[in-house]
Amino acid sequence: MVERTLSIIKPDATRRNICGKIIAMFETAGLRVVAQKRLHLSRSQAEQFYAVHKERPFFGELCDFMCSGPVVVQVLEGKDAINLNREIMGATNPVEAKPGTIRKELAVSFTENSVHGSDGPDTAREEIAFFFSGTEIVG
Ligand code: ADP
Ligand code: MG
Fold this sequence. Notes:
Blueprint: E1 2-9, H1 11-15, H2 19-28, E2 32-39, H3 43-49, H4 59-66, E3 71-79, H5 81-89, H6 102-106, E4 115-117, H7 121-131
Helix pairs in contact: 3-4
The protein binds adenosine-5'-diphosphate and magnesium ion.
The site of adenosine-5'-diphosphate (ADP) has 9 residues, from loops.
């Protein structure tokens, strides 16, 4: 089934100027960028986006990191896009990510792991709406 998922290229990757390399990995694997913009999140936007993690010990560090520099938010479209993107990204902890995945090849650390991807259909819908209006998504 053709799906859409929300992707974020995180500040560690924009800082190192490797957005193009990451986008090429999505495109090579069959995902299409159907919406994209570069933003600098506020602390409160980062807290709202990651609210599900607010009780976790890494929440403060994560929110500090996510507003430490620009991000590139994207809608990716393709067959089974949500799970396919999670495969392309690799495990959350780059040490555990498989060779060839974005996080294995490019991540800096557990927190600074280069990319975010929605984890299911409901979160994909909510996260896309967090950043994009319908007219900004052009398939
Ligand atoms: P994912 O991004 O793979 O969906 P989670 O939703 O569990 O992972 O966590 C959100 C983000 O929080 C991760 O991508 C990572 O940046 C950070 N994070 C998660 N767990 C840890 C941890 N144990 N230590 C440091 N940072 C973490
Ligand atoms: Mg997650």
